[in-house]
UniProtKB/TrEMBL annotation, chain A:
SUPFAM superfamilies (alphabetical): Thiamin diphosphate-binding fold (THDP-binding) (SSF52518)
Signal sequence region: none
UniProt-recorded name of the protein: Transketolase subunit A
Cofactor: thiamine diphosphate
Record key words, sorted: Thiamine pyrophosphate
Domain Transketolase N-terminal per the UniProt entry, residue ranges: 33-269
Record family assignment: Belongs to the transketolase family.
Transmembrane stretches, start-end: none
From TrEMBL, chain B:
GO biological process per UniProt: isopentenyl diphosphate biosynthetic process, methylerythritol 4-phosphate pathway; terpenoid biosynthetic process; thiamine biosynthetic process
Species assigned in the record: Mucilaginibacter gossypii
Family assignment from sequence similarity: Belongs to the transketolase family. DXPS subfamily.
Identification of the protein by name: 1-deoxy-D-xylulose-5-phosphate synthase
CDD domains for the chain: TPP_PYR_DXS_TK_like
Length: 288, 312
């Protein structure tokens, strides 16, 4: 259950709840990355509602801000957010995985508002760097945000990109890590340990903030301080929970990708609102 | 005009051009001072350079990127395919020391599968100029096109003056009824020598500088196959996936066949040594090419082959 922190964030909390409903509804008939994307909901809702200058009518404006979703499998949270904020017709979410639309497991640019396709991890830090470099050359003041997964940080190109971002003093660029402490099949610290993560980023020259990625107040404070330091790459480590909002799948290694049956979907929608404890009967699914 | 002069002129005329390198500065030594912020050296990070080039292209820029051929095509392959190819962005890949031009470096640096893997990416166009004159005649069109492009950079000087370039068109140097040599890149120079030897041995010989390998000039291939008793594909590339394969694909597509002699590296890397010795050892001097086609030794002389200076 999402805690309402104070009145300032009621609207965001309400939006995030609806986005989680969308994700649950997409977690059937083939399924989606339910556990993975639930961790990023509050972060993505916050970014599009409060931080980024990205609206339905400025998607082609060269002065818009940029969001690159390098953790491509967080895309159900993006679809849900777009639907709630009017960038995508809600009806289209019913087309998930169907041939009549382009709503599938990873982001693609046929969905207005998605800047670049992703899915292969460790790519968009460098693409975001290219955009940030252009803005430095042309004098644009746009913000460039790139959302990374924590498992994704296994990819060497994330660190290579940080070396380059540091060399070119890209303080218009912000890497946000959806730190849900899991990679596909297990806890990050049980496979490829990342901690002390903030120290690693700082050693690469970044200015780092670490926050609770489910607290709108903390998100507000951290993003409100952007840019953090003149001439430094900005990094926010948002500590999150895989499966946030659904106790029956929260922080479970086997609930990265979920394909529920219709009965489970109905139970999970009730569970999301704190009115039920779901009994999951369908097989747990670990893809990869 | 040199490659660097052409790039300088192009970048000064067009503010959208960005010159990038993964610390391969041999071709762009003077550009940092001339272009300022429009010169970007990402260090030894071919993958990050390609991703960043895609990002710059998203903002309307035309990045011309430089790296050694082997690392540009193979270390960064998935970035080229995924970030440049899928998005069909006008990123221009300038690959340094491709094919035999990596001479003394060894197999780590040998890009002799580059044509094969780059042409396998949808949207990516592929070019291989015969020499510096060909290079500077080809690049303006390649850089102006909206497609991603891979170009084997070849700055060797020859005495040959090439025809103007059109994307998708080969340069027919000569037509012949006995044999036609199809080639690209630095072996063009040796093919010219081979043609002279073959002619003096009484053969009617054709020669085609393929130049544009994707899109390829299908009509030139079909015409040569129809009018010559023998077609030779000559390339500093693995036998798999290069010109021999392209010719096979074209002939099959048009439901025809030909007597084709492939001269390429068959399932092997070449022996690392200076370029003249590479050609000699691997059997790719003009004289060796001619004698392989003739099937006998001749008394013709092989002109001296210039050794390129080391540069990376």
């Amino acid at each position: 259950m999402i805690t309402v922190e104070n009145n300032n964030y009621q609207e965001l909390t309400g939006t995030a709840l609806k986005v989680r409903e969308h994700i649950i509804r997409m977690s059937t008939d083939g399924g989606c990355f339910t556990g993975a994307s639930l961790s990023a909901v509050d972060l993505i809702v916050y970014l599009y509602s409060r931080f980024l200058n990205i609206k339905k009518d400025n998607l082609d404006d060269p002065n818009r801000d940029y969001l690159f979703l390098s953790k491509g499998h967080d895309v159900p949270a993006l679809y849900g957010t777009f639907a709630e904020l009017g960038l995508l017709e809600k009806e289209r979410l019913k087309n998930h995985l169907l041939l009549n639309d382009h709503i599938y497991w990873h982001p693609n640019t046929k969905i207005p508002g998605i800047e670049f396709h992703s899915g292969s991890l460790g790519h968009l830090p460098s693409v975001a760097i290219g955009v940030a470099m252009d803005l430095k050359i042309s004098g644009g003041t746009n913000k460039v945000v790139c959302i990374l997964g924590d498992g994704e940080l296994n990819e060497g190109t994330c660190w290579e990109a940080m070396l380059v971002a540091n060399a070119y003093k890209l303080d218009n660029l912000l890497f946000v890590v959806d730190r849900n402490h899991f990679q596909a099949n297990m806890r990050t610290e049980d496979l490829i340990p990342l901690e002390p993560l903030a120290d690693k980023f700082e050693a690469f020259g970044a200015a780092v903030k670490r926050i609770n990625g489910h607290s709108f107040a903390e998100l507000d404070e951290a993003f409100g301080a952007f840019p953090f330091h003149d001439g430094k790459l900005n990094v926010i480590i948002a500590d999150t929970l895989r499966g946030k909002g659904l106790p029956s799948i929260q922080e479970r290694a086997d609930r990265w990708f979920c394909n529920f049956n219709a009965d489970e979907i109905q139970q999970l929608l009730l569970e999301l609102h704190g009115e039920h404890q779901t009994t999951l009967t369908s097989e747990t699914l670990v893809v990869r | 005009m040199s490659y660097e002069e052409l790039l300088t002129q192009t970048a000064l005329a067009n503010e959208q051009v960005i010159v990038m390198t993964a610390e391969n500065r041999a071709l762009v030594r003077n550009l940092p001072g001339i272009l300022g912020k429009r010169f970007i050296d990402t260090g030894i990070t071919e993958q990050t350079m390609i991703g960043a080039a895609a990002g710059l292209a998203l903002r309307g820029r035309t990045p011309v990127v430089h790296a050694l051929a082997a690392f540009l095509t193979m270390r960064a392959f998935e970035f080229v395919r995924t970030d440049v190819g899928i998005a069909n962005l006008p990123v221009k890949l300038s690959s340094f020391i491709p094919g035999f031009l990596s001479d003394g470096n060894g197999p780590t640096h040998q890009a002799i599968e580059d044509i094969s893997i780059m042409r396998g990416i949808p949207n990516v166009t592929v070019f291989a100029p015969a020499d510096e004159d060909d290079l500077v005649k080809m690049l303006p069109q390649i850089w102006e096109s909206k497609n991603p492009a891979y170009t084997r950079i070849n700055t060797r000087k020859t005495a040959y003056v090439h025809e103007p370039f059109t994307i998708g068109k080969a340069e027919v140097i000569a037509e012949g009824s006995d044999v036609t040599i199809l080639t690209y890149g630095l072996l063009f120079e040796q093919a010219l020598i081979a043609v002279e030897i073959l002619k003096s041995e009484g053969l009617s010989v054709g020669l085609i500088n393929m130049r544009s390998l994707k899109p390829v000039d299908e009509q030139a291939i079909l015409k040569a196959s129809a009018q010559s008793k023998l077609v030779v594909t000559l390339e500093d590339h693995f036998l798999t996936g290069g010109l021999y394969t392209i010719v096979a694909e074209v002939l099959l597509k048009h439901r025809t066949t030909a007597n084709v002699l492939p001269m390429a590296l068959n399932e092997k890397w070449f022996r690392p040594t200076l370029l003249p010795s590479v050609l000699e050892h691997e059997g790719f001097t003009g004289k060796q090419i001619a004698e392989k086609i003739l099937g006998y030794q001749t008394t013709h002389n092989q002109p001296q082959i210039l050794t390129p200076e080391f540069s990376e």
